[in-house]
Design brief:
Largest sheet of chain A: none
Number of helices of chain B: 14
CATH superfamily of the largest domain in chain B: MetI-like
CATH architecture of the largest domain in chain B: Orthogonal Bundle
Number of strands of chain A: 0
Number of strands of chain B: 0
Oligomer: heterodimer
Structural class of chain B: mainly alpha
Distance between the termini of chain A: 13 Å
Strand content of chain A: under 5%
Shape of chain A: elongated
Low-confidence stretches of chain B: none
Helix content of chain A: 55-70%
Order of helices and strands of chain B: HHHHHHHHHHHHHH
Low-confidence stretches of chain A: 1-10
Radius of gyration of chain A: 22 Å
Order of helices and strands of chain A: HHHHHHHHHHH
Number of domains of chain B: 2
Mean pLDDT of chain A: 82
Helix content of chain B: over 70%
Largest sheet of chain B: none
Number of helices of chain A: 11
Strand content of chain B: under 5%
Chain lengths: 294, 306
């Protein structure tokens, strides 16, 4: 309740400085860095992430005894360079994470708008389906879907989109219900705009804020789910370097103390998710007072 | 009241119907169901027998009707790997899952509720900030990561706890912690906001006005009322814990339903995967229904609204 007073409208220029108050600089820097690393993975990675030499298996990081500067963060069970795999793994997480959030957001926002604006039986059908899908445990549902269509990067994106769109649909529909009562929508109806035009031109721009906030908050969830799927062996197929896959491989070396194979990719996932959540929390407070209770 | 409950029950049945329809359609429409429903490496005669049994050459509605009929009779098919009915397998693993979930729940409430109260009582001060960091960490650290770090620390370096398996209380500690971590943060958040709401209410002001010591106001008047939403969430979360434990159970080789699901995907044992999804969804629908009914019994405003 004490947070209520913090809402700052971003309407005028003078408010911009105050609007940036508490800007999560570190998390954004981390996310942007991971994004840059992912974009320029080919230039940054010292080795091919998918090819290793069995003679170089399980080298520890450079600062430990037995490590060498050739492989700064050591090598894995197939002698592949861990640093290179982490760098290319950032690409997998970023690409899968962002596209899945966008797929889920696009489906959920569209259905939420249609459901809320049209009402009636359309609303009933969409909301009943939404409720049902929400009842399915997300990770289990995703595993079930990969069991049907088989794992590939593309399929994982579609599956995550199919699992998570319901979160958007619920919230967006609620917003549309209140928007529908507003003056400008009524005027648009009087002016003779078609339903499609109203939904596209008048409703959609007004729910985008919420969709963006939700998307940022979902990014962390989606990345963890992708990593979990990879960890369980139904995510991005090997030898592609996904962080979750690296964790699963690293687990085998854990008991003999090859800590870098799990701690490093795990830390990467944690950093990315933590950053996304911090950014999402800030955006939620700044952009969308209605979502603050989420 | 009766009308409200009838309506909730009807909705739940509708949900269960849509749930089975969703699962059914995904299996039949996206790809070739025979490759999923028939064992890998089955002979042509076996495949034909399966087609016959599931009526795969007939219309979707006929197929769906027979699918639902077998579900109602508790027939979730035969596991390809274990060669036993899937439902039997599921029920044999359920107690282990429940044990793990209960331990994780106890842990999450033990951490989440006191820290949430502390954060609400000291809102904006040190403990509140510390709690915020804690809840953010809890919601951001994936459970497998927590699990693997625990193993590294307590099993590999300190050699205090067994890294996998089940049987003793010691085996339960780390998986319960890894699974409960996220929920501890969620319970803390809810306890905090629920406490804040109660602390701002009139009857708390009255209790303070009549000169009750603050500790008594918090312990006797605020705490009890603030706990209701938390316990509701805990009820739902217990079921969710059973259904999301797949990663934690895989990390610690805990023989619960999650582990069963993992075996299902590694051995391409599709009936198992399908049953775990269906029963998980059904469990959540039913618990939601029970909580709705319980709320209506406790709180007359809800049943009058409906």
């Amino acid at each position: 309740m004490a947070m209520r007073s913090e809402a700052v409208p971003l309407s005028s220029r003078g408010d911009l400085v105050r609007g940036l108050e508490g800007f999560p600089l570190l998390p954004v820097t981390i996310l942007v860095s991971i994004g840059l690393v992912a974009a320029f993975a080919g230039l940054l990675a010292p080795y091919d992430p998918e090819v290793g030499s069995l003679a170089l298996r399980f080298h520890p990081p450079a600062w430990q005894t037995g490590g060498s500067i050739d492989h700064l963060l050591g090598t894995d069970h197939l002698g592949r360079d861990v640093l290179s795999r982490l760098i290319f793994g950032a690409r997998v997480s970023m690409v899968v994470g962002f596209t899945a959030v966008m797929v889920a957001g696009a489906i959920g926002t569209c259905l939420g708008i249609v459901s809320g604006y049209l009402g009636g039986w359309v609303d009933q059908v969409i909301m009943r389906v939404t409720d049902t899908w929400l009842a399915l445990p997300a990770l289990t549902f995703a595993i079930f879907l990969t069991a049907i269509v088989g794992p590939s990067e593309m399929n994982i994106v579609i599956i995550l989109g199919a699992v998570y769109w319901t979160r958007y649909a619920r919230v967006i529909r609620g917003e549309v219900l209140s928007l529908k009562q507003r003056e400008f929508v009524r005027l648009a109806i009087v002016a003779g705009c078609s339903k499609v035009t109203i939904m596209r031109r008048h409703i959609l721009p007004n729910v985008l804020n919420s969709a963006i906030v939700l998307g940022t908050l979902m990014l962390g969830v989606v990345i963890v789910t992708e990593a979990s799927l990879s960890f369980l062996g139904v995510g991005v197929p090997p030898p592609k370097p996904a962080w979750g896959l690296m964790l699963a491989d690293g687990k085998k070396g854990l008991m003999v103390g090859y800590w870098w194979l799990t701690v490093l990719p795990g830390s990467c996932i944690m950093l990315m998710v933590l950053s996304a959540n911090l950014l999402g929390d800030w955006l939620r407070v700044k952009l969308d007072p209605q979502l603050r209770q989420l | 009241m009766a009308r409200y409950i009838t309506r909730r029950v009807a909705y739940s049945f509708l949900s269960l119907f849509l749930l089975s329809l969703t699962i059914f359609l995904f299996v039949r429409v996206t790809g070739d169901p025979t490759t999923l429903l028939v064992e890998p490496g089955a002979s042509q005669a076996d495949i034909d027998a399966m087609r016959e049994r599931f009526g795969l050459d007939r219309s979707l509605w006929v197929q769906y009707a027979s699918f639902v009929r077998s579900l109602v009779h508790g027939d979730f098919g035969q596991s390809f790997y274990y060669r036993t009915p899937v439902l039997e397998l599921y029920l044999s693993r359920l107690p282990n899952s429940l044990l793990l979930a209960l331990a994780a729940m106890a842990f999450s409430l033990l951490i989440g509720v006191p820290s949430g109260i502390l954060a609400a009582v000291r809102v904006g001060r040190f403990w509140d900030r510390a709690g915020k960091v804690f809840s953010l960490l809890g919601l951001s650290l994936p459970s497998f990561w927590v699990g693997l770090v625990l193993i590294l620390f307590f099993s590999v370096y300190l050699e205090w706890l067994p890294s996998s398996g089940s049987g003793t209380a010691l085996h339960l500690l780390m998986p319960a912690f890894a699974l409960g971590w996220y929920f501890a943060a969620a319970h803390m958040r809810l306890t905090r906001s629920s406490m804040l709401e109660v602390l701002g209410s009139d009857y708390i002001k009255l209790a303070r006005l009549k000169g009750l010591p603050e500790s008594l106001v918090i312990a006797k008047h605020a705490f009890k009322n603030a706990l209701i939403p938390v316990l509701t969430l805990a009820g739902i979360n217990l079921v969710i814990m059973i259904n999301v434990a797949v990663v934690v159970e895989t990390v610690f080789a805990w023989p619960g339903i999650g582990r069963l699901l993992y075996e299902g995907i590694t051995f391409r044992d599709f009936p198992v995967v399908q049953a775990v999804v269906l029963l998980g969804g059904a469990m959540i629908v039913i618990v939601n229904l029970l909580i709705d009914i319980l709320y209506a019994v406790i709180d007359p405003r809800i049943r009058l609204e409906a």
